[in-house]
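Hello forum,

I keep getting stuck at the same step: I have a sequence, I want structure tokens, and every attempt I make locally crashes halfway through. Rather than fight my setup again tonight, could one of you with a working pipeline run this one for me? It's a single chain of 190 residues.
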Amino acid sequence: MPYKKLLLPLVMLLITTVDFVQAQKKQKVEYKFGKIQPQDFLINASGIDSASSAIKLFDIGNCYFEISPISKSFVYVYERHIRYKILNKNGYDYANYSIGLHKSNNESKEVLEFMNAATYNMVDGVMTTSKIDKDSKFTEEVNKNTVFKKFTLPNVKEGSIIEYKYKIKSDFIFNLRGWSFQSEIPTLWS
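Reply #2:
Ran it on my machine without issues. Output:
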């Protein structure tokens, strides 16, 4: 008799779990750097967000651990890919991007392994791409433990789509970077 009472909740739990896993598979969205769809240029803020200066089209991150070939200890790898649509001049600030990197006295550090960024504009129905160049990359040392890598994208104007993709490797495996699903502008996918 007691088994019958457990059977129904167990079956319901199994069905719910299968439905959840299927929903997660259906929602998987992949974005490739530089693969801009023409309809992305038509996206605008609406409703309560209609006064927004920009829209975050997506903000995707990934964090995982690997063994460092140099130190033979664990490091964490943080990857991020962000795409914005600039709606008006107040959104131009999103073309200036800054990444904070830390180091300590015992030689532990964070390293920006990879950075790619570009601006996309529609000119006479044709998409143009302006990639970031060496003159648009800066390093600012705040103190002996903190450095900011700064980037400024070219040719940003109202209606531009801008994109950043980068990878950081960090020895600070107990200090993972935080994640915000929303920000001061609307976020369509996080």
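The chain has a mean pLDDT of 86. If your local run keeps crashing, start a new thread with the error log.
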